[in-house]
Amino acid sequence: MEKTDTNSLSAGCMSNRILSTTICLLILTSLAPTAAAVGPSDSVIWGTSYDWANLEGDIEELSGIDTNAVNEDLEEAADFAGFIIESDQVISGMTQFFIETYDGDLAVEITDPNGATRELNERVTELTVRHGRLGNIGFTTAWTDEDESIDFWMSGSTEEIFVIDAVYTEYVDDDLMVYGGHLEMSGEFALENELQFNLQIIAADEVLAPELGMGFSVSFEIPSIESEWLASEPLDYLHHLSAPPAEENNGSEEDEEGAVGAEYDGEGVGLIEGEFSTLTGYSAFLSIDGVPSEDFGIDLDAFNVQLSDSIPGQGTFSENMTVFSGAMWGHECDPVGGVEELDIDPSTNDTISAQCGLAPPISMGMASMMGISMLMAFDSGVNELFTAIEEQVGAWLEEIAPEEESFICDNGEEIPAEWENDGEIDCEDGSDENETGGDGTYTCDNGQVIPASWVNDGEEDCEDGSDEDGSSEDVFQKYIDMYEALNNSNLRKTMEAFGEKLEQLMEDNDPSDPIATLDDLCPIMFWDTSNSRVLGMALMATDEGDDYEVLLGPDILGVKDHSYELSVVYLTGNDARNAKLDALGLSELKDLAPESRHDVEELYDMLGEDFLPDLDQTDTDEDGVIDYFDQDDDGDGIFDWEDSEPLVPNQQSPPGEEEGTDAIPGPSVLAVVSMLGAAALLMPRRED
Amino acid sequence: MSSNRPVAIALVGLFLVAAWYSTWFEITATGTYSEGLEREPTIRTEYIIDNSQETFELSIENSTPLLLYWLQREDVSPEPTNQEPTDSEPTSQTNSEGSDPCSGSCLGQARGWVGVVLVALFASLCLSTRRPSRLVTAAVAAIWLIGSVVILAVVPLSAAADFGISDDGEESSTGGFDTNTQETVEVDQFAHFEAESSLEISFDGISFYYQSLGFDLGLLSEDDRQQVINSAPSEDEPGYESLIGFDGKMTIGPGGILTWWLLTAPLAAMILLGSREFLEEE
């Protein structure tokens, strides 16, 4: 639709070249996504980027735990004990966030709530968040004795996406007094999880083979939120946060370690008004197969239940604005503290002085506006959903809550039902022990006396069987027999051998002895006192000698960088600007966590066809690796996700998407054989 | 023709195996709340019987308004009378026993019957090639007809019996929804209830179409119910929010087993015809 509009407008622009060029540029600008902007080249920008494919390596680097070695230890220990275990996990995707702040070029006129017009400056903060992650986990185990066996298969998957683009413009005067702000934002949050279990137990000549699948997804899309806040009076929270370390002022409080906290409490500081549009969705499914439902009086062997909804919402809101803020200066994060010199832009090598401490990374006016705006938008769509879930869960809980059954004694006294015939007299008149003796015995119909606890225990203890009224002839006997058969097998010994061997193998992978001490992790924000804004952040961690080093952050003069090979990247200056520009083009899960980079080939080998039941087996470049697992389809040595012209495989249904099932029923091979048979019948024979 | 018979027998065997492993019976239903609920929630169900299990699938699209509707509505059905059953009136226990003659395993027995007719058809056709006779021909025809009855009637009826559905003359849950008598509200939960249904027979099976519209008294406060019962509220009047419209379609039919079973008929005829020629030659 946008494309058509643009084309028609462009055609109209041809008559007057200058005017049309100007109009076309304006239109094209307006077609750009809202709330996705790039600041000027002299802005302050910082952020981080992380590639989740390196998670296992980073865990090993920091903790010394090699997750692949742990998997191998598990497999070796199981092999030693005489059974099979295989497990694997794959995570891929990307997380990036950027905060960019700059002063607007133009002055803006604001009419304050008192009707006075003021010319103010704009301070712009842009927040860009991109997070997309795919995760799969698989686990199989197979144990067998002479007559008993256990096979277990498990597959789990997760998909996450979190995208935020927010542009906040704060209205300030030359003294950095705040008069209000304007927020434009869009975003998406989605989470999907699925889990499938297949279990087969053979014991006591019985087979139990349940298959269970479950999953849920939630999503919350914000195509747009726009809101504006005008302060009822000029606010000084930017000054407040800039208070130098150890300087007492209103709301400041020194703690035991000498840090000074600056708090700002601004409740009801004007009105925030805005409009939003949202789309809230959810789905959930549960499928059960192979459960011995007939044992429990259910006539279904397999069932699959699915709920889904997508709730559009839009509206306006008007709420009281609240700004809470705070900072803490002078806290110990040795050797960093007080004022430090930072290399804020590696491309220029310029250094800048910054006050170190803890402060909000974005203006709290922005945080409050985002919080209130999102809450209003969230409430519109999800409130209905939450009400339904809350009421449904309440109803279920009410249904499954055990009813307190009671027994009424002959004298009218009420006692819990389970006290009846328990061998102890609980009613004052003794009427609760009318079948068993008061000494914990039961008298059979033939006069035989047996312990009361043997009554209705599933075994006939009286010679005439009168201790069993049939109520305990339960369906669970089969499972009790299976449990006993497993208990009498070598399962227990196998598990003991497995545990001992695993303990021995895991000695070199001891998670209690990490390389980096993350307990001492120390976060720091760098504050520009002259402009009242955060210049960046750092995470400090101690090295083997208990000295702090920069784990994540800019170069700080005189402070050493960490010595680990980590994949998390801190970006400032032009590096951050370029990375943010790239990130703005990525807003879908397929961009942030492409399946082509999510290598599940080993999981497929381990879990088999049930993992990807409808996997397309096409191998376009005929290199022996099917397209789904082939990370370089055209064999040019460049990974497909980095290749500008990758070979496009045959367009076929992606795995998991079944094609139409309305064809003639029956297996296709069978149909072919039938047709051949029919042809053989109908073809005229030579002798005819 | 006789030289073709081994191929035909093999094909019949193949079709019977296909029949055994295909779907035996299928019910699909779709219902949409066309009035009263936001975004028209839709319920889809599928019930399938095959040689080993019964599968039930249920999906609800735009489920939130429907969940809220189900949860928020109040049961307004009249209290059951506490009348002791007399000797002449069979108790419900007796009724349920009577309607479930195979103790919940009717479908299991029906599966046995299907297995028997499939094997019997194949065996009788084989016999007809070895020892052709009019008796064998009649037996093949009888088995085929019995098989058709088992597939078309015994399997669905046994499933229904296992579920406890029986033709015992009990009033259906929607049987009393009629505005003409003005008495429906005393026994049912809707006022001014109107329903239309139609039936269609096609290759897919029998399709039932159902449309209903009525004011659900369970959505109204006790004080408002009588007012709605007395006169149906129009769009702007209080009580109109309880109007619920429902459009449904249910298709009942045999699954793939019928296709494979029908395909055996011409082949069986061909085999029997060959046998007849052989008999006539003799």
Protein architecture, described:
The complex is a heterodimer of chains A (688) and B (282). Chain A has three domains: 1-31, no CATH class; 34-402 and 511-584, no CATH class; 614-656, no CATH class. Helix content of chain A is 23%, strand content 37%. Chain A has helices spanning 2-12, 17-31, 55-63, 67-81, 237-241, 364-400, 477-487, 491-505, 573-584, 589-592, 601-607, 668-682, and strands at 44-51, 84-103, 108-111, 117-144, 149-172, 178-203, 206-208, 211-235, 252-254, 260-266, 270-289, 302-320, 323-329, 339-345, 350-358, 406-408, 414-416, 441-443, 449-451, 517-528, 533-542, 548-552, 555-556, 569-572. In chain A, strands 1, 2, 3, 4, 5, 6, 7, 8, 11, 12 and 24 form an eleven-stranded antiparallel sheet that branches. In chain A, strands 9, 10, 13, 14, 15, 20, 21, 22 and 23 form a nine-stranded antiparallel sheet that branches. In chain A, helix 1 runs antiparallel to helix 2 (17-31) and helix 4 runs antiparallel to helix 8. Residues 1-34, 245-252, 650-670 and 684-688 of chain A have low confidence and may be disordered. With 282 residues, chain B is α+β, with helices and mostly antiparallel strands. Chain B folds into two domains: 1-22 and 105-166 and 259-282; 25-73 and 174-254, no CATH class. Chain B has eight helices and six strands, in the order H-E-E-E-H-H-H-H-H-E-E-H-E-H. Chain B has a six-stranded antiparallel sheet with strand order 3-2-1-6-5-4. In chain B, strand 2 (42-49) and strand 3 (54-61) form a beta hairpin. In chain B, helix 4 (106-130) runs antiparallel to helix 5.
Tertiary shape of chain B: elongated
Most extensive chain interface and residues per partner: A-B, 35 and 42 residues
Q: Tell me the count of domains of chain B.
A: 2
Which class of secondary structure composition applies to the elements of chain B? alpha+beta
State the total count of DSSP E strands of chain A: 24
Beta content of chain B comes to 15-25%
Radius of gyration of chain A: 35 Å
Q: Decide which structural class fits the backbone of chain A.
A: alpha+beta
Spatial arrangement of strands, main beta sheet of chain B: 3-2-1-6-5-4
Number of domains of chain A: 3
Residue share in helices of chain A? 10-25%
Shape of chain A: globular
Average predicted confidence as pLDDT of chain A: 78
Point out poorly predicted stretches of chain B. Answer: 81-100, 166-187
> Count of helical segments of chain A?
12
Extract low-pLDDT stretches of chain A.
Answer: 1-34, 245-252, 650-670, 684-688
